Here is the input.
Amino acid sequence: LAHLPTTGGALSPAEPLPPGSRMPFSRNPLFVGRVDDLRVIATALKGAQTAAIGSVEIAAASGLGGIGKTQLAIEFVHRYGRYFAGGVFWLSFADANAVPSEIAACGAAGHLALHPNFEALPLDQQTKLVLEAWASPLPRLLVFDNCEDQALLNRWRPRVGGCRILLTSRRSQWDAAIGVQILLLGVL
Here is the structure.
């Protein structure tokens, strides 16, 4: 994570994600623009040198529906995901009732592989194991796509550890206590 570039000339090319990542979307080869937005997100997620040890940085790409928040997050993942040694985990927060299943899917074989019989465990045990893994110091990128509910974010975000969270949301204001750094997206 220390090598994650936040400034400079051309963006680094897209590269494969760390093993175990959960990323359902391929990179859009027609993605253009938003270079400055990608760098702002990188800076926010890298964290300040004075940030509290173990604090979890959260950045939100916010704006109107259809403005390209999810496409920006996808591009960020494919260009910067390799800097998160613990992997990238994409979760849909569009349906609050499905979030526990989204989290549990991150612990399955092929991703975090947290338990030899992970799929046979109850859902609450699966989510507990994933949340415990996310609290480790290993840098991971969590993408909470379509996260509109502050209570939902507050419920499922790790409080400590090496995770960084990128939200996509139409919401432009969050409780300051959560520490969300907001990037308001304009039209291209």
